[in-house]
């Protein structure tokens, strides 16, 4: 992954630090070992550029959110299971969700609660939410690509200035909650292009290119040193051949304002941005910050040309001795309610609801029975997701759990089925697409026999 960006505000052909585009291309070519502008343009010409721009926004909730407290309430269960919250009716008869989601309830006809995800690994990481596969499943040489890597490989960039597969995944104290996956056997050129680092940020100024801000690009020695460091790291990890890819991406991005403009929320209509609520840049313990405005950034990145956007949001692991499950829910749920409803409203108002799919989920669910700390422990037997957009048949619930929310009794769903549905939404052919791994073995987007959720098509 390459984490990028200073503030490329063009002024008379120059960046804000006074480095001209022509000069930067010259510096960049030297630093990257001879990559020239013609070489970049040739690569752009040869790359596949999709004409049908559909996209996926993958919102990961690190830590495993409680399915019962979110979108699968159990009002008829005993008090030690149903918890402190009451269900509310939505605008779709027969669908109820937690009372702390009134905005989503009012537009449930635009959502799809999935209540029966039943094949969670039980691991505290983002792996299944990024790849769809179990961590310990048999892996091809190079590993399984993240979902966005498949999209990037098969559909190519919409334009050279914005990578197809981007991420807003913060590096978290619990490192496995901040990993957007890799390109796997498809190669690093299709890895998620991560746009944020350990520090939360509210503007592009804090984003960096290999430790070099745009304000320091004129320091050729420092620039060379940064890329030398990357060369050593890449060589150690066997990725030296990726230099050309990173160089081309960096030059394309740093010599246009398109990506920077997408990341600059000051360019968003203030009334639209206000819908999302105010972000909190404080990291939630070892999780991600509550950067709810990143939901808006995800939409802006899609509009700029991204095909797949992954992001991690807040921290949802509340079962410790502090008994924070219900107090934290009262803090977190209303903000999530506001942000998700704003994102889906935006997509509909902009005519993107048929083209952009949204999935919101975590790695597993929570124990139906409340523990002695008034919280819920890990529960891989069942978890939930929320889907929207993508031209899907919204306003329906997929799956059903038993009276106590312990396991699925109707329509158990696999993570790969969700991804199969998302792939179909963006136009990928599940049955007709074979991609050969580094050993020459054909691989598929999902395991053979996995189909999209037909209820949604």
Can you offer a commentary on this structure?
The longest helix is centred in the last third of the chain and has 25 residues, at 325-349. This protein has helices spanning 21-31, 37-46, 67-70, 79-82, 102-106, 127-131, 147-155, 220-236, 243-254, 258-263, 270-276, 294-304, 325-349, 415-425, and strands spanning 55-60, 87-89, 96-98, 111-117, 165-168, 193-194, 280-283, 289-290, 308-312, 356-361, 365-366, 378-379, 383-389, 400-401, 408-410, 435-436, 442-443. The chain has one domain: Alkaline Phosphatase, subunit A. A 7-stranded mixed beta sheet has the order 4-13-10-1-9-5-6, with helices on both faces. Strand 7 and strand 8 (289-290) form a beta hairpin. By secondary structure, the chain is of the alpha/beta class. The protein is built from 14 helices and 17 strands. Mean pLDDT is 83; it is low at 1-51 and 199-220. Helices cover 30% and strands 14% of the residues. It is globular, with a radius of gyration of 22 Å.
List the helices and strands and how they pair.
Layout: H1 21-31, H2 37-46, E1 55-60, H3 67-70, H4 79-82, E2 87-89, E3 96-98, H5 102-106, E4 111-117, H6 127-131, H7 147-155, E5 165-168, E6 193-194, H8 220-236, H9 243-254, H10 258-263, H11 270-276, E7 280-283, E8 289-290, H12 294-304, E9 308-312, H13 325-349, E10 356-361, E11 365-366, E12 378-379, E13 383-389, E14 400-401, E15 408-410, H14 415-425, E16 435-436, E17 442-443
Parallel strand pairs: 1-9, 1-10, 5-6, 5-9
Antiparallel strand pairs: 2-3, 4-13, 7-8, 10-13, 11-12, 14-15, 16-17
Helix pairs in contact: 1-8
